[in-house]
Amino acid sequence: MTSSPTKKKDAVWNAADYAANSVVQQAWARELIAQLHLRGDEHILDVGCGDGKVTAEIARAVPRSAVIGVDASQQMIAFAQKTFPAKKFPNLKFQIADAREIQPSMFDNHDAVFPPSPPQKEERAGVRRRLVSSSNPITPTLSPLGRGEGEGLQRFDVIFSNAALHWVDDHQAFLRGVASVLKPGGRLIVSCGGKGNAHDVFLALRPEMRLKRWREFFRKMPAPYFFYAPEDYEKWLPRFGFKTQSIILAPKDATYAGRDGFATWLRTTWLPYTQRVPESSREEFIAAVTERYVAKHPLDTDGKVHVRMVRLEIDAVLGAPASGTAY
Ligand SMILES: C[S@@+](CC[C@H](N)C(=O)[O-])C[C@H]1O[C@@H](n2cnc3c(N)ncnc32)[C@H](O)[C@@H]1O
What domains sit in the chain, N to C, each tagged with a CATH number? Predict the structure, then answer.
């Protein structure tokens, strides 16, 4: 059976290509890591970890703890596991998981390297902890304590996510999930495409897509990216028990090495568009979009192509931060 061009397709990542051509995303990730001021003993979950190189950088910053990277792409996780084998990177694990389906029980198999957090003070005193229910995010339910029901392990100090969440349609499902695995006072730090992101690229892409040459491949194409605004998160965060520290739309200048660098970026990350075009003419499509973009945004004197990006940057804590935390 041939697949219809109108059907929603999951992006198939070329993890090695992404790994070799993602310095821009890596630079943003480093800015985010720096904001964490890590002590070295925090347990961290990296959501949408991709090829794993950013997750590995985080793991290096927490030598007395462990980091788990999750990603929906089987290609990305296989690449990350191969590049960062458990033997050489004992505090770094990867597993396939959808950002919309995070729950405590999915980390049970990491107990050997990633012990569950000690019971909270109030647990020891026999007080039931408030957990965010997956069925009703607005009214947290009371949950039985301890293990065995897959909901007693709020083990992460930090949830980290870079350059991934704009691929996710349901951000509230993401928030519900991460709230269930974060320790009280734990921190959520996110950078992803925000409202207005890469607007000029869409202005080059859309007229090309409409040409007779390509149009059949893009018919009824569903929106592949979800660029939200601070107002969205201001509404959503409190529903899942988060207290906002800051939410901003940060304009960023992404630079690429000439036409080739820009085209490589399209090839490696604009998959929902490029992969609709048959492989035999994909390079032609990418080159045409590149020409349109460069015609409007010429190379600078160093031969660089600039793209105005807008990142949605979120910094929040779950519940009230405990006194004396670094956050
Ligand atoms: C541009 S890459 C970013 C990778 C990495 N975080 C970095 O900074 O280089 C986007 C990643 O988001 C992942 N992703 C997209 N949708 C996802 C979802 N629903 N759940 C988990 N990961 C997802 C993709 O598979 C891809 O690896």
Answer: 15-197+222-253+310-318 (3.40.50.150)
Ligand 1 proximity of 25 Cβ (cutoff 6 Å):
yes
Per-residue pLDDT of the chain (327 residues; tens, 9 = 90+): 333 333 446 799 999 999 999 999 999 999 999 999 999 999 999 999 999 999 999 999 999 999 999 999 999 999 999 999 999 999 999 999 999 999 999 988 766 555 544 444 444 333 333 333 333 333 232 232 223 334 445 689 999 999 999 999 999 999 999 999 999 999 999 999 999 999 999 999 999 999 999 999 999 999 999 999 999 999 999 999 999 999 999 999 999 999 999 999 999 999 999 999 999 999 999 999 999 999 999 999 999 999 999 999 999 999 954 454 444
Q: What is the position in ligand 1's atom list of the atom closest to the CA of 13?
A: 25
19 CA to centre of ligand 1 in angstroms: 12
Query: Does the CB atom of residue 54 touch ligand 1 within 6 A?
Result: yes
Model pTM score: 0.86
Residue nearest to atom 8 of ligand 1 (CA): 162
What's the per-residue H, E or C state across the chain?
A: CCCCCCCCCCCCCCHHHHHHCCHHHHHHHHHHHHHHCCCCCCCEEEECCCCCHHHHHHHHHCCCCCEEEEECCHHHHHHHHHHCCCCCCCCEEEEECCCCCCCHHHHHHHCCCCCCCCCCHHHHCCCCCEECCCCCCCCCEECCCCCCCCCCCCCEEEEEEECCHHHCCCHHHHHHHHHHHEEEEEEEEEEEEECCCCHHHHHHHHHHHCCHHHHHHHCCCCCCCCCECHHHHHHHHHHCCEEEEEEEEEEEEEEEEHHHHHHHHHHHHCHHHHCCCCHHHHHHHHHHHHHHHHHHCCCCCCCEEEEEEEEEEEEEEECCCCCCCCC
Q: Could you tell me if the CB of 73 is within 6 A of ligand 1?
A: yes
